[in-house]
User: Which sequence fits this backbone?
């Protein structure tokens, strides 16, 4: 009886908290606490491998060091270039494939499944097997390229000019299906009557694409690019397996450099500052991007 | 319920069993050790579990384990460069008292290996490991190609001396470039598979083989950590330039991120006339000579001085282990001369004087004499507790210059010194 009374006494709000409480606690423990801890560490000269050494407060020194280090800006340039080309190619090819697969033809389902396959592989595995594909002596990539035009033997991974393209190609191969799937969902949500009305108004296919298809699919495409952008900003495994950031540092993305500073050189304070800067950067860009995306949607 | 009972029962069985776990890299000698250890289990009843980690992840995996005070390993065969961190950060058990108690004398082991694998500070009598696996960077070559009369006469005509084991790096380059792009038995061959790996330590281990031979010193012998004019001396610059020339003129296509396994593959598949690699691999290479392939082996050629890059490891007891007594028992057994002899017979590189000084040792295998020669001239990378922090900038700068072709050798070495100064300052050494 007593128990029943107590149970009756729980308000809706309390029940609500009871449900979300564990999730909130988990979020605080594995997201918020580490973030706050990292921010705290970023103001110290902490080295996680130097046991017993008390970290000292160094103010903004780590932030100044990160921002003044030429090598960091080189890594940021490499990351920006990687993001620009992968997003551009994935947007164009992904949209193109979605338009293709939106048509009804024999073998459509099979082709969709085949196109989507790379996305389902582990990035580390993809990195490893592309090193074989890129091998200048036995790799298929050289063979295929030379089939169309005889460039002779070239080393995609060992050349500083080609290595950045080698990671762009692999990422595009792997993740274009993702952009394609989202765009396809967008295309399938466009009501048919819009095209029928356009045909009545004698709009040609190009005009239909520009005035109906593109505006309808654009919010979907932008959403896909947002996801890809965030993912590629922190890209790590595929590139490490493929090039190890080399040759030299030609493909050393910011995330790879951060891992090396944090868990190989063990410069915990310095790398925390670097991580906070990267977080603020991606958070800032993400916010601006979402605002732009919402404006486009409202139109 | 049944599952719970079974799992509880198996847990209690496992926790009662006498077993230890040994961590090492995944390579040929580890398999030999596993074989050897069966005798230890038969003698003592102590099971030894092995965890072998592939080389590219070896340092990451093991050092993370140590830094996190992990209990996964009771024994660790760690790289020579880790000894400083193992001692200073308290990851390894100091073995002096145990050695004294068990009558294990470090005088019974090759001095170079004791210095490199066991002591910290260097040259002191504080021992944190027992020398387990002697190793140095050396070279294997296609003796069967070298013995072909038509190639021998063509080489002699071109260079004015015999095609054979190179006595210096210039000769090595002559020979490697002689084979570069040459067709032998209807197949295109290349000069040499050398270390160019970027991620862990590969290119550093390779380029230092040249730098040591040119006479490079890391620091002023009279003023520790004073590197200017030593590490970037004209000789060191010349050696790095030479290594780039060797890569450009003699490496097979696509050999831009290669270390142990890639060098072995290039050699075994018949692509190259030479491969640079660790002695640890020579038993396997020698055993697998087939289809007319005959391998010869030689120590790192000299240039201005005789020197070779040190590899190899000592075996240490992990401080965080709950089974230190069992782990020490293993070390006691492993230090026995008869076990050391079996270790060499199985393909491991013993560092015990009884094995190395035996009259039959130099002729026991085709690479034994080279091993003895090398162990007398070895030089190692920094063994400081901060060695990873010191290794990474060197990997990046050297790879950037040698493989990427960016900048100058002097610029690369200057950049490395700049980073090293920062590391030593943070460590309170400067």
Assistant:
């Amino acid at each position: 009886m007593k128990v029943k009374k107590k149970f009756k006494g729980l308000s809706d709000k309390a029940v609500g908290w009871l449900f979300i409480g564990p999730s909130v606690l988990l979020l605080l423990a594995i997201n918020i606490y580490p973030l706050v801890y990292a921010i705290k560490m970023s103001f110290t000269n902490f080295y996680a491998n130097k046991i017993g050494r008390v970290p000292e407060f160094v103010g903004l020194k780590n932030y100044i060091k990160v921002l003044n280090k030429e090598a960091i800006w080189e890594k940021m340039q490499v990351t920006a270039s990687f993001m620009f080309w992968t997003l551009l190619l994935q947007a164009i090819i992904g949209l193109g494939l979605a338009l293709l697969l939106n048509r009804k033809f024999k073998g459509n389902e099979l082709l969709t499944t085949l196109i989507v396959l790379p996305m389902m592989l582990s990035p580390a595995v993809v990195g490893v097997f592309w090193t074989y594909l890129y091998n200048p002596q036995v790799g298929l990539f050289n063979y295929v390229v030379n089939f169309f035009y005889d460039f002779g033997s070239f080393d995609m991974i060992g050349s500083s000019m080609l290595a950045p393209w080698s990671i762009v190609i692999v990422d595009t191969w792997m993740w274009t299906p993702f952009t394609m799937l989202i765009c396809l969902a967008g295309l399938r949500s466009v009501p048919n009557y819009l095209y029928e009305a356009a045909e009545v108004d004698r709009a040609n296919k190009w005009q239909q694409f520009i005035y109906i298809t593109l505006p309808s699919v654009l919010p979907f495409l932008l959403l896909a690019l947002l996801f890809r952008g965030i993912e590629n900003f922190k890209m790590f495994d595929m590139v490490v397996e493929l090039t190890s950031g080399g040759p030299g540092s030609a493909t050393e993305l910011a995330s790879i450099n951060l891992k090396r500073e944090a868990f190989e050189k063990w410069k915990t304070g310095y790398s925390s500052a670097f991580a906070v800067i990267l977080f603020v950067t991606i958070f800032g860009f993400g916010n601006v991007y979402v605002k732009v995306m919402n404006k486009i949607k409202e139109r | 319920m049944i599952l719970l009972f079974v799992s509880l029962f198996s847990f209690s069985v496992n926790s009662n069993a006498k077993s230890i776990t040994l961590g090492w890299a995944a390579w040929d000698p580890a398999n030999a050790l596993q074989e050897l250890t069966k005798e230890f289990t038969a003698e003592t009843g102590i099971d030894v579990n092995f965890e072998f980690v592939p080389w590219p992840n070896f340092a990451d995996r093991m050092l993370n384990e140590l830094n996190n005070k992990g209990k996964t390993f009771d024994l660790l065969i760690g790289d020579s460069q880790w000894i400083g961190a193992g001692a200073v950060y308290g990851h390894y058990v100091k073995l002096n008292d145990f050695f004294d108690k068990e009558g294990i004398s470090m005088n019974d082991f090759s001095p170079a290996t004791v210095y490199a694998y066991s002591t910290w500070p260097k040259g002191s009598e504080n021992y944190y490991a027992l020398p387990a696996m002697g190793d140095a960077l050396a070279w294997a070559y296609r003796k069967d190609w070298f013995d072909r009369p038509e190639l021998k006469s063509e080489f002699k005509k071109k260079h004015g001396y015999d095609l054979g084991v190179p006595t210096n790096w210039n000769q090595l380059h002559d020979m490697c470039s002689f084979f570069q792009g040459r067709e032998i038995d209807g197949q295109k061959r290349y000069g040499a598979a050398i270390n160019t790996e970027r991620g862990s330590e590969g290119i550093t281990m390779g380029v230092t083989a040249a730098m040591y031979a040119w006479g490079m010193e890391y620091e002023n012998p009279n003023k520790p950590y004073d590197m200017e004019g030593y590490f970037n001396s004209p000789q060191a610059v010349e050696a790095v330039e030479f290594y780039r020339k060797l890569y450009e003129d003699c490496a097979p296509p696509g050999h831009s991120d290669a270390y142990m396994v890639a060098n072995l593959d290039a050699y075994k598949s018949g692509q190259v006339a030479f491969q640079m690699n660790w002695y640890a691999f020579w038993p396997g290479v020698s055993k697998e000579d087939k289809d007319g392939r005959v391998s010869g082996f030689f120590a790192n050629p000299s240039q201005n001085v005789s020197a070779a890059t040190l590899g190899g490891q000592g075996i240490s007891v992990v401080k965080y282990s709950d089974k230190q007594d069992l782990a020490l028992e293993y070390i006691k057994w492993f230090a026995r001369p008869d076990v050391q002899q079996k270790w060499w017979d199985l393909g491991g590189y013993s560092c015990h004087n009884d094995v190395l000084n035996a009259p039959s040792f130099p002729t026991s295998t085709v690479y034994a004499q080279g091993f003895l020669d090398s162990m007398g001239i070895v030089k190692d990378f920094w063994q400081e507790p901060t060695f990873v922090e010191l290794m990474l900038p060197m990997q990046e700068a050297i790879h950037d210059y040698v493989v990427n072709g960016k900048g100058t050798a002097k610029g690369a070495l200057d950049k490395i010194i700049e980073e090293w100064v920062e590391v030593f300052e943070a460590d309170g050494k400067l």
